[in-house]
Design goal:
Helix content is about 50%, strand content about 20%. It has 10 helices and 10 strands. The relative contact order is 0.13. Bound molecules: flavin-adenine dinucleotide. Flavin-adenine dinucleotide binds next to strand 1, strand 3 and helix 10.
Length: about 325
């Protein structure tokens, strides 16, 4: 699964990447997909902007399934306001000295290295760079493994850097150009989250259809109630509309067309859809939908992060409104 094809497809070949995400999501474990997908978040900055040496040293072993990479952007003081990140990397001879912390980092407890956003320059978006920080660097620590509502199959960590000395050759891309690389990377991540939301909705729909055809109330199947049939019809319509929209955006991204507005719309549409569809699925299952025995309960929990991670719904709406006003 950690194949070169998967990752390079993500950089050029979004449709292939969607297929991989959809099929992995069929396992019913979005946490598994989140864990595996960290290579798709951490490697593109290296592959797109790194040196040949960095590609060999860092990307190659991850693609070979021998190492784990994580993307470290979010900090305890705030994830939405990326331009304000506070972890510093101060040049000292042929090293950067890194101090600060990151949080919510997927695969953070297991990663061999982090593609980390750090402040190398002044305040604001113009002072950010990407550094590859190996997790065996003295001064690095996993300060906490976070307990989450969903995505239990993936670890999420708070990380700490105390005078970590990182060689200057680990700088990925140009110094102080990291903000643009983060924004570029987000487009990719958002597409992956669309695919996850779409398949979450699809699975919740399929489970609900099966259950509604079997379960009886008042002497008839749930499908005998118009209210249930209409709920299922609406769920099916939303899932299909969202999937088609995502596919269109992916095709346009592959064609090199700017889709910053559209991918933000697609993420909000897909996650609103999956919020509604997983909610309705649990409703159709009644009390059983609230138990660990049925997939819809897990889908409902795992789904909650999709409208938060990779840029919240509110941040997506900010992007969209700036582009249409
Ligand atoms: C399970 C999980 C895995 C994650 N994995 C990673 C990872 O691998 N790497 C990584 O770097 N990050 C990761 N994240 C972090 C994720 O991207 C952030 O949680 C997200 O960007 C939101 O940041 P925040 O949590 O700090 O919320 P905040 O930025 O504090 O936002 C709080 C609330 O304020 C709202 N808000 C903020 N700014 C605005 C605004 N301008 N207008 C309107 N509303 C606003 C938000 O929408 C939100 O509702 C992960 C998070 C989780 C929970």
């Amino acid at each position: 699964m950690n194949s070169p094809a998967t990752c390079s497809a993500n950089i050029k070949g979004k449709k292939n990447n969607i297929v991989v995400t959809e099929e992995l999501m069929r396992s019913g474990s979005a946490g598994l997909v989140a864990g595996i997908s960290t290579l798709d978040l951490a490697l593109p900055p290296i592959i797109n902007h790194g040196t040949l040496e960095q590609k060999k040293r860092f990307a190659k072993p991850v693609l070979a399934g021998k190492k784990i990479a994580a993307l470290a952007v979010t900090e305890p003081s705030g994830g939405s306001d990326v331009a304000n990140l506070k972890t510093t990397a101060v040049r000292d001879g042929d090293h950067y000295v890194v101090n600060g912390s990151k949080t919510f980092i997927t695969s953070g407890t297991k990663a061999d290295f982090l593609t980390a956003a750090v402040r190398t320059g002044g305040d604001g978006y113009g002072g950010i760079s990407f550094l590859v920080i190996e997790t065996d660097t003295p001064g690095f620590a996993v300060s906490k493994k976070l307990l989450k509502t969903g995505w239990w199959a993936s670890d999420t960590a708070e990380l700490f850097f105390d005078d970590c000395r990182v060689p200057v050759e680990n700088l990925t891309g140009e110094e102080n150009q990291g903000f643009y690389m983060i924004m570029e990377n987000f487009q990719n991540e958002r597409l992956g989250l669309c695919a996850m939301a779409n398949m979450t909705g699809q699975l919740a729909l399929e489970e609900s259809l099966k259950y509604a055809k079997e379960r009886e109330a008042f002497g008839k199947k749930l499908t005998g109630f118009q209210v249930t049939r209409h709920k299922l019809a609406e769920m099916a319509t939303l899932v299909e509309a969202s999937r088609e929209f995502t596919y269109r955006v992916a095709a346009r991204m592959d064609a090199g067309i700017n889709q910053i507005k559209e991918i933000s719309m697609a993420k909000n549409f897909a996650t609103k859809m999956s919020n509604k569809v997983t909610f309705d699925a649990v409703q159709i299952f009644g009390g059983y939908g609230f138990t660990r025995e049925y997939l819809v309960e897990r889908l409902y929990r795992d789904n909650r992060i999709l409208s938060i991670g990779g840029g919240t719904s509110e941040v997506m709406n900010e992007i969209i409104s700036k582009m249409i006003l």
